[in-house]
From TrEMBL:
<dbReference type="InterPro" id="IPR016032">
    <property type="entry name" value="Sig_transdc_resp-reg_C-effctor"/>
</dbReference>
<dbReference type="InterPro" id="IPR000792">
    <property type="entry name" value="Tscrpt_reg_LuxR_C"/>
</dbReference>
<dbReference type="InterPro" id="IPR058245">
    <property type="entry name" value="NreC/VraR/RcsB-like_REC"/>
</dbReference>
<feature type="domain" description="Response regulatory">
    <location>
        <begin position="17"/>
        <end position="135"/>
    </location>
</feature>
<dbReference type="InterPro" id="IPR036388">
    <property type="entry name" value="WH-like_DNA-bd_sf"/>
</dbReference>
<keyword id="KW-0597">Phosphoprotein</keyword>
<protein>
    <submittedName>
        <fullName>DNA-binding response regulator</fullName>
    </submittedName>
</protein>
<dbReference type="InterPro" id="IPR001789">
    <property type="entry name" value="Sig_transdc_resp-reg_receiver"/>
</dbReference>
<dbReference type="Pfam" id="PF00072">
    <property type="entry name" value="Response_reg"/>
</dbReference>
<dbReference type="InterPro" id="IPR039420">
    <property type="entry name" value="WalR-like"/>
</dbReference>
<dbReference type="GO" id="GO:0003677">
    <property type="term" value="F:DNA binding"/>
</dbReference>
<keyword id="KW-0238">DNA-binding</keyword>
<dbReference type="GO" id="GO:0000160">
    <property type="term" value="P:phosphorelay signal transduction system"/>
</dbReference>
<feature type="modified residue" description="4-aspartylphosphate">
    <location>
        <position position="68"/>
    </location>
</feature>
<feature type="domain" description="HTH luxR-type">
    <location>
        <begin position="154"/>
        <end position="219"/>
    </location>
</feature>
<dbReference type="GO" id="GO:0006355">
    <property type="term" value="P:regulation of DNA-templated transcription"/>
</dbReference>
<dbReference type="Pfam" id="PF00196">
    <property type="entry name" value="GerE"/>
</dbReference>
Amino acid sequence: MIPRQILLLSRPRHRIRIAVLDDHPIVALGVATYLRDHADFDLVANVSTIDDLFIVLERGGCDVALVDFYLPGDRLDGATFIRRLRVEAPPLAIVVLSAARASDTECVCHRAGANAFLEKSTPLPLIADAIRNAVASPRKFFVMREARLQALVPHAREDTLSAAEIEILRHIAEGLSVTQTAARLRRSKKTVSTHKRSAMRKLRVSDDLGLALFLKEKFRC
């Protein structure tokens, strides 16, 4: 067999066509440059806005969207954006690459319809593997555990909450402060604050931003 025939046989039958969406140019450039070096990948777009990504998808020819979760300049929040992607491009594999903590975000991404969630600190080779796995096993959800990829369903953190904690979170989700919640429920501010801290610990959220993200998804109107 001549060298040219060997080269042709070694090429993947179908290159995975990838669109990258990230509003941070350095991150986008680094990831895109790395993916271009793989024979089984075809980087079809590297965009910085949701609208630009949907234009790419309308043209067809894309298997995977590697997307950021927080895009401050865009009109859609992360969960809404992923749900819209899933509705408008059902066959698309959606891999979320985010600066958000996995404990704060991976459950939200899974419920919204993504195929994988990775933090931006994930080594590039594992990002490439997550893309391959998302295409090969579209019914699974991939995350990082102990420095390796695993397919699992993220634990529903709210299942660990007590009835009192859920009641207080419902009021906070309506926009009430701890003081306002205490007044409405006729409980002390200290009691409400204690339940809130306990709920945040169970939900593995470290600040009010993480809690707000959870509440938006869990108690959305």
